[in-house]
Specification:
5-stranded mixed β-sheet; 5 helices; about 15% strand
Length: about 280
């Protein structure tokens, strides 16, 4: 028979854990709504600027006139790896790091990591990956200016020829339940495939090269900023779901332990009654 006092203490402990996970679920739900609004609000601009850049890059010989569009033999690849700073968000961190590890194994060239977030940084150091830069404690509500140093490193290294291709790895927000690890090529920009029937010449003022030169740095900055916003929305969604599952599991365990406690208590009462009855019978 289990010890009644130990079972009662365990019930109390699990109840305290359930209170904590419930509070964390509510906090994550509150942060998730704001993060989702910011992430979804930036999608149209991010997609549109990507389309404009791809159309400009498809113009004849324009890729040879800007350093961020130049293509060269790939000897070194950089990956901007965006992960949360904290855990307790289900399998999100493990899925992101696993996606990065699979990508590195597929590449035959050298790969360096720009770690954005403590979990990605720790994973990179733990596995001996080359970390060219690291950014942690960005917060739950980063501003556009706070992410500019990340994009500046990428732009400078690519322009100098120190890296030949840039990818960005982040958690793409699909829904509250689904967060998909994404790996997208950032540089060089892939030119758009324009069908012959839609091949129309546009006039750019003051010129296509000038417009492209102003938009390309902003494109890199916006893509990195939007990836960070999507990752924050994914993190809060995954944490809310994980804490909800933890609360449900704790409540289920409390029910099982309460049943075990009642059985043990009933057995103890029955045993005491039998002892009293046996003692009375012996006196008679």
């Amino acid at each position: 028979m289990p010890d009644i006092r130990k079972v009662k203490r365990r019930i109390k402990g699990v109840q305290n854990i359930a209170k904590i996970t419930r509070a964390m679920e509510m906090i994550a739900a509150s942060k998730m709504r704001k993060a989702q609004e910011r992430g979804l609000a930036g999608r149209p601009y991010s997609e549109k600027i990507q389309q404009v850049i791809a159309d400009l890059a498809a113009l004849p010989d324009i890729g040879l006139q800007h350093p961020l569009l130049q293509r060269r033999p790939v000897e070194k690849v950089a990956v901007v790896h965006v992960t949360p700073d904290r855990g307790l968000c289900g399998g999100l961190n493990a899925n992101l790091n696993r996606r990065l590890a699979g990508f590195i194994l597929e590449k035959k060239s050298a790969v360096s990591v720009v770690a954005v977030g403590r979990k990605g940084r720790d994973f990179s150091h733990r596995n001996g990956l080359e970390v060219s830069a690291e950014f942690i404690q960005i917060g739950d509500h980063p501003g556009f200016l706070e992410t500019l140093p990340i994009s500046r490193i990428i732009i400078d290294d690519y322009s100098k020829g120190e890296i030949d291709m840039v990818y960005i790895s982040y958690a793409q927000f699909v829904s509250t339940i689904v967060q998909r690890p994404a790996m997208k090529q950032l540089l060089p920009v892939e030119p758009a495939v324009i069908p012959r029937a839609e091949n129309v010449d546009y006039l750019y003022e003051p010129g296509a090269i000038t417009v492209l030169g102003g938009l390309l740095p902003r494109f890199v900055e916006m893509q990195i900023y939007h990836a960070i916003l999507e990752s924050i929305a994914s993190e809060q969604s995954a944490r809310m779901v994980a804490m909800r599952n933890a609360t449900d599991s704790a409540n289920e365990l409390i029910g099982d332990l309460t049943l075990l406690y009642n059985k043990a208590r009933q057995e103890a009462i029955t045993r005491d009654l039998l002892d009293i009855t046996g003692g009375v019978a012996a006196l008679e």
